[in-house]
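Allow me, if you will, to draw on your knowledge of protein folds for a short while. I am sending you one protein, given as its amino acid sequence and as whole-number tokens for its backbone shapes. Kindly check, if you would, that the fold set down in the tokens agrees with what the sequence suggests. The record follows directly beneath this note:
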Amino acid sequence: MLLVGSLAFGQVDCANGRYNSEIFTNFTIEQDIKYGENIQPTLTDPNGTQELFLDVYQPFEDTLQKRPLIIWAFGGAFVFGSRTSADIVRLSGTFAKMGYVCAAIDYRLTTDLALNGSERLATMAVLKATHDMRAAVRFFRQNAAMLNEYNIDPDRIYVGGVSAGGLAALHLAYLDELSEIPASIAADTAGLGGIEGLSGNPGYSSEVSGVINLCGALGDKKMMQAGDVPLVSLHGDEDGTVPYGSDIVTLFNINLPVDGSGAIHPWADTVGVRNALYTFVGAGHTPFVGFSGVVPTYMDTVVTFVKDFLHEELCGPSTAIDDFQALDMQVYPNPFDRQVRIQWDGSVGVSNLEVYDISGRKQAIQVEREGNSFLLHRGDLLAGLHFYVIRDQKGRQIAQGKIMAR
């Protein structure tokens, strides 16, 4: 059993540094792939539509048949920007060289915001972008089922974005009930296709495996609930464009209340959603973006923090079966029937606990935090060997061990 467990965490496609380092020296780009279209009225054409395109980045000469996909959305306050912006190109190329397939997407902009900013128009802009991103997710699932041109794993699709693109990714993952759509646009929702939208590729799921949020926000952090997909974020705590905490977006005089990364992640801890937040202390909005491209020091931090988080999502805890402890742990009773308590000494900043089975799959569990301990309720956890991982507030693993359910 121990041998099986150690092999399971080192899955075949996680070998040789895949998803953890740039194991490919180059990547290919296939540009201008149409993935959908939707209404986009303009002053000259109130009934106009916009075709939506994306670029696909793949590791050069990769032979793996099922690879995780990251869909990236650019920033620009929903008024400007493009899928060829320097930060999106850098992120797509870098993660492609790690073994991912990446897609940089268009989405419909709302240029009226710049002159006629309002809460309603800003909320509509977020919904339009989210609808387009959902269509991109569906496009790749449809392609995987019919043509399989990109060798993606349809069960491992992640969405990410910068600033406005981050808002789109967050709302795709966590806005999943009609009741969560703000009242300012509720009357328009049915004609726009509800939550899923009408941007193309119907009949396929737009669900994702996780979110990469770079300086984005949610309309309400409580859209995220127990059982939702994991989230990794980086955000400057002096961001004057998209608030770091719970505050008002004042850009274009829209006065829109949002919850930024500094508010979302404590809430994620409360509801038990796996998450990691890196705070650029003293930094403003998107510090990894410069006037002539990217700022290497900040961009390197983005890449490292995101790839570490995703690597563990895909491949399981890096230390596999061996107990690793930066804490003095006590686990009792072990083996256990209904509950097991995991307790530690010291004042290390513990954030959350995760449980994996021997194949490396994360398990849905109920955990209560009680001082310097977690009380794990077995629930539907099957009998057998499992592994626990404890993380600090930055998502770093600080303890790991074994538990046995009878």
Remarks:
- Residues 1-12, 319-325 have pLDDT under 50 and may be disordered.
